[in-house]
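dude i think i finally got it to work??
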Amino acid sequence: MATKKVLGRGLGAFFPEYESEVASSSEEKKKSEKREGIEKNIIAPEERVNVVLNVPVEHIRANPHQPRKEFDEERLEELADSLKKHGLIQPITVRYIGEKRFELISGERRLRAAKLGGMDEIPAYIREADDEQSMAFALIENIQREELNPLEVAMGYKRLLEEFDYTQAEVASRVGKNRTTVTNMLRLLNLPDFIQAALVSGKITTGHARSLITIEDQTVQQKLLNKIIKLGWSVRQVEDVVRELGNSTSKKKPSKTTSKDPFYDEISTRLRRTFSTKVNIKPKAKGGEIKIEYYSEEDLERILAIFDSI
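look at this
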């Protein structure tokens, strides 16, 4: 008994030219139509979206904007076995790119499993999307499914910033996160490789990593990382240790962040009024530093909103 297809319509219903490839004879064509159980309706190219079709896997290329880089081979094997027995319940999402070819938007794990399981075609939801939308859809879906590790999320945010000229506020709006979350995730990319590796492997959490960002000495970072892993320190414990390290450093080295120059004092005063928080200016031989303090994530959001309005 032939296996019944639960989702999708044959591509011949929307792309008549497929018939010459999928049916080598009129007999095979009739069987294909009977199996699909549908009338062959030709739909104009501009209407070939928002439908589910059974698309040959060899006609689907990978999403160049795919934020996910790590795939568990064992879980892929398990999914491939499940697809063989039960078929694919949720279609992947693709966009039509012309010449009977599609580009994956989301569902790369399902597509890989389908190929691994020897499936010839796969149900796919055809969606209209440009490069920007394709990347955003892929990132959003993976975030919603919690399938990306923190660094993959951060890299996805960075690509939206660099490749599409988004602001952090726009990225936050697109992916449904607040501005502070996006900022904190992007800061993870500044961590040394050994901390990033521990984060990706799950040995530490994003909270642990964020606490270690504030330490400039990598030797100290490594020592703390070892203790987190060995002793199972909580994020709060790490924050307390980092705070103590900061306090001890400030006691040993008197602060010189505020210039005694009246010119810089005046600018500091103006900035304090603008941001309603402490602002220190530290001039150097060339240029200098401006230090703006914040006291909570909400306070940081307030300061960022001021920058956005400037």
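The chain has a mean pLDDT of 77.
im so relieved honestly
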